[in-house]
Amino acid sequence: MVIKVYIASSSGSTSIKKQQQDVMGFLAANKIEFEECDIAANEDNRKWMRENVPNESRPATGNPLPPQIFNESKYCGNYEAFFDAREDNAVYAFLGLTAPPGSKEAEALAKREQQ
Asked: Please, what is the angle between helix 79-87 and helix 14-29, to 10°?
């Protein structure tokens, strides 16, 4: 399973650039393999991303903005959902992955199962 992060390499928005760097930096730091899919340089990536973000996750107006995160073709969420998952130590679950032993998320899951 490959995590795909849809980004815009030539975004004029500093907040979008920071969000993209935040997501990819976190994944790299935690050795979570991912593929960067640039919607600015590849029209197919742009179309695919826009078509596969579920209706309930789309903005009220306009198109979904990067970063958008998928596990293969399964939608995981946008930056806000990623940020919330990270704050809750639930990024692996958010990504549809099994938390590795010794991770904060695995420890939190073990605690919940013991209760």
From this structure: 40
Q: How confident is the model at residue 110 (pLDDT cuts 50, 70, 90)?
A: confident
Residue among 33, 66, 34 at smallest CA distance from 48: 66
What's the helix, strand, coil split of the chain in %, to 5? 45, 15, 35
